[in-house]
Automatic annotation (TrEMBL):
Residues 127-260 form the Fatty acid hydroxylase domain. It comes from Rhizobium tropici. Keywords: Lipid metabolism, Membrane, Oxidoreductase, Transmembrane, Transmembrane helix. It comes from the Bacteria. InterPro entries: Fatty_acid_hydroxylase, Sterol_desaturase/TMEM195. GO terms for molecular function: glyceryl-ether monooxygenase activity; iron ion binding. GO terms for biological process: lipid biosynthetic process; membrane lipid metabolic process. This is Sterol desaturase family protein. The keyword Nucleotide-binding does not apply.
Length: 331
């Protein structure tokens, strides 16, 4: 029996892959967090998950043309390492910050820490943490799409023309820092314990890998709750009305509540990318948003053209109104 998209086995694997990889990743994270070197073992589990997903990308790709090299692999990995470095520094601050608060006895923040329901079972604390962090992630992501001053950093993530597991972490470090700030600060202020931060990091890591993967997964009802590859492909669409949707990083609850959830009943877009141009090399990509010329290149010609079109349409409408008014006066 061959492993073809029409076979029953293919359909079963396609439907089971997302939950199976997610649960396996979390189980690995559990053992990593129980060990003495939890960051080291977590990274081992994470890399093993990357390898498993890469295998399924080869075996059952959603879009075959995305298997071709795009010359961006080095940059994808370099941005991932830089952004992950940022996250790990934040995690280190996360470790020392509550201790500093406790020892210096900052009265305001110590008081605030009473808000966190630390007697709940850990799984409910993590669910609450995810729900709160997700609002920050949603806001940071949506703002990055709706304001050019932030889009200049986020465009790097959208500049890819294929999705695969390796460009999951392709974020400008400024984009990552903005997201970390908006999602983690509320949790610090509420006094969430370090274990909640670690588990949110694990969930975000595995869902992120799955979100970007080029595997033909059938996610069905999962699309209503989690940010799945299907939803995220719409988010990468070149068509603005499709791309400015599905901002959720792990959960799509805030998209559902705030009207940006998008999941029409047809195969999700493979025509992805941006209208502007992102620089070629890693360092050039880091520097590009900070220069005037760079910003212009990132934003591209389309906004200017759109502005001109809108101006012309407004002028034509005004001319029509004037001539109608003249006709009415003379009539
Ligand atoms: Zn985006
Ligand atoms: Zn993406």
């Amino acid at each position: 029996m061959t492993f073809q998209s029409s076979s029953r086995l293919y359909a079963a694997v396609s439907a089971l892959l997302w939950p199976a990889i997610f649960c396996a990743g979390l189980t690995g994270a559990y053992f990593a967090f129980e060990s003495n070197m939890h960051l080291l073992w977590f990274n081992v589990v994470y890399l093993a998950t990357v390898a498993v997903i890469a295998f399924f990308e080869w075996l059952m790709p959603y879009e075959k043309t995305w298997l071709k090299r795009d010359g961006e692999t080095f940059n994808d990995v370099a941005h991932t390492l830089l952004s992950k470095g940022g996250v790990q520094i934040a995690a280190a601050i996360g470790t020392s910050f509550p201790m500093a608060v406790a020892t210096v006895a900052h009265p305001v923040l110590s008081y605030h820490s009473h808000f966190w329901p630390d007697r709940w079972p850990l799984i409910f604390q993590v669910a609450l943490g995810l729900f709160i962090a997700e609002l920050g992630l949603y806001m940071a992501h949506r703002l990055a799409h709706e304001h050019l001053s932030l889009w200049r950093f986020h465009a790097l993530h959208h500049s890819v023309e294929r999705l695969w597991v390796i460009n999951t972490g392709r974020f400008h470090f400024m984009d990552s820092l903005f997201k970390i700030a908006l999602s983690q600060i509320p949790l610090y202020l509420l006094g969430a314990p370090l274990s909640v931060f670690l588990w949110i990091g694990a969930v975000t890591g595995f869902i992120g890998l799955l979100t970007h993967c080029n595997v033909d997964m059938r996610t069905g009802l999962l699309d209503l709750i989690f940010s799945t590859p299907r939803l995220h492909r719409w988010h990468h669409s070149k068509v603005l009305a499709e791309g400015n949707t599905n901002y959720g990083e792990n959960l799509v609850i805030w998209d559902q509540l705030l009207g940006t959830f998008y999941n029409p009943p047809r195969p999700s877009s493979t025509d992805i990318g941006i209208t502007g141009k992102v620089a070629k090399g890693f360092l050039a990509q880091l520097a590009q948003p900070f220069s005037r010329q760079g910003r212009k290149e990132i934003i591209g010609k389309k906004p200017k053209e759109l502005i001109l079109q809108e101006e012309q349409a407004a002028k034509a409408a005004a001319a029509r109104r004037n001539s109608n008014a003249r006709i009415r006066k003379s009539g």
